[in-house]
Amino acid sequence: MTVYTERQEALAGVIDDDSSRSDWTDWKWHVRNTIRTVSGFEKVLGIKFSDSERKKHEMTLRKFPLAITPYYLSLIDEEDYENDPVFLQSFPSPEELKIERCDMTDPLHEDEDSPVPGITHRYPDRVLFHISNLCSMYCRHCTRKRKVGDQDSIPSTSQLEKGIEYIRNTPQVRDVLLSGGDPFMLSDEKLDWILTKIGEIEHVEVVRIGTRMPVVLPYRITDDLVNMLKKHHPLWINTHFNHPREVTDSSRRAIAKLADAGIPLGNQSVLLAGVNDCPRLIKTLNQKLVKNRVRPYYLYQCDLSEGLSHFRTPVGKGIEILESLRGHTSGFAVPTYVVDAPGGGGKIPVMPNYIVSWATNKVVLRNYEGVITTYTEPDSYECNTCDRNCADCNLQLKEEDAEEKAIGIEKLISDWDDTLSLTPEDNERAERNSHVA
Ligand SMILES: *Cc1c(COP(=O)(O)O)cnc(C)c1O
């Protein structure tokens, strides 16, 4: 496997006259030499925009800054850069300045659902912890576009300590998702410190890191980093490949190091118009990932953040893609397709319908080939009616902490809570009735 192509060698020379062979695989060299201007981009890629194009790009950059690592830029095909998936994900489009009516600065209410700065606590048992607002490459489709390049919001040690304190004081949190920005923009020492602090909290059972480094700067995955991470198991990592072209030799090496360290790897892709909105492409990507020990985890519908309208597809596109995966390829090459609900509702899975009909004792189902089949349900099923008293139940769940309350639909279908319906807050009928009393 080569880690340094002729093209990359030539690019390194254009970027930095004094560059040596070892620089290309030094992640700090890439961070130092990240391309941040339109003219820098033109120079390195060897292209020239017209004056009007350049003006448009520079205007876009004033709102949403540009950053591309030399490595990621080296993947762009300069012959057809306008359609290049790497170009489209990293270089601004004038379309980003188009604000649609549905656009929001914080569609997922990450700031609203934040008990302390840096923490988003949306789900009962896990939190998102933003430990870095820096990225080596600014994805044009970033859902946190509002924060990109906001140098002031790099969390200080005392802010990180407050986040850790929140986790320590919140016993429900058993899963901590380190995100950002890219957590791997922090030094090994800082990460080690954070992971150690979180590791000391007894109720935290698992830590995950979300990083795009294996895709945009794979040399960040150094032996030192991996040796440090290994000390903090159980640790999971999710990365962010969107196109098969991103699975390069360098990326494969980075992934292999993490997998060899016993870190389970997942991938979160975003469905992007003009980049990867193709069933064959997503299938190829997922098969490549599986071959490299990365489990496709989520396929995201593009969020309603400002500046992303040109990337959005109809939800039907995602369902069509899922239809082409399930049954057609390995089950573990099929991600869950999700719409992250605007307003902080969280991830909602969406998929093709497989239940065709249902009677009292039979379900009619269809498979991926269109075969329609029936599953006969049991005549006698001894239902375990649950009163939350595990000690008296035959199922032998010996957990002491079965105290958690049911939420939402789970509550409606539970045996031990007699809630019959959930009513929206702004229900007019309920409002009227409250006055009648
Ligand atoms: C995505 C997300 C999580 C993690 O969700 P999983 O479905 O467990 O992967 C947690 N918190 C927030 C705010 C999220 O957006």
What does this structure look like?
By secondary structure, the protein is of the alpha/beta class. The protein has 3 domains: 6-97, no CATH class; 119-349, TIM Barrel (Alpha-Beta Barrel); 390-436, no CATH class. 31% of the residues lie in helices and 14% in strands. It has 16 helices and 12 strands. The protein has helices at 6-15, 21-24, 27-32, 38-45, 51-63, 70-73, 85-90, 157-168, 188-199, 213-216, 223-229, 249-260, 279-291, 315-325, 409-413, 428-436; strands at 119-123, 126-130, 175-179, 206-210, 235-239, 265-270, 294-300, 336-341, 346-349, 355-358, 362-366, 372-376. The strands form 2 sheets. It has a 9-stranded mixed sheet with strand order 1-2-3-4-5-6-7-8-9. A 3-stranded antiparallel sheet has the order 10-11-12, with no helix packed on it. Strand 7, helix 14 (315-325) and strand 8 (336-341) form a beta-alpha-beta unit. Helix 13 (279-291) packs across helix 14. The longest helix is centred in the N-terminal third of the chain and has 13 residues, at 51-63. The radius of gyration is 24 Å and the shape is globular. The model has no long low-confidence stretch (mean pLDDT 93). Pyridoxal-5'-phosphate binds at residues 120, 122-123, 126, 128, 177, 347.
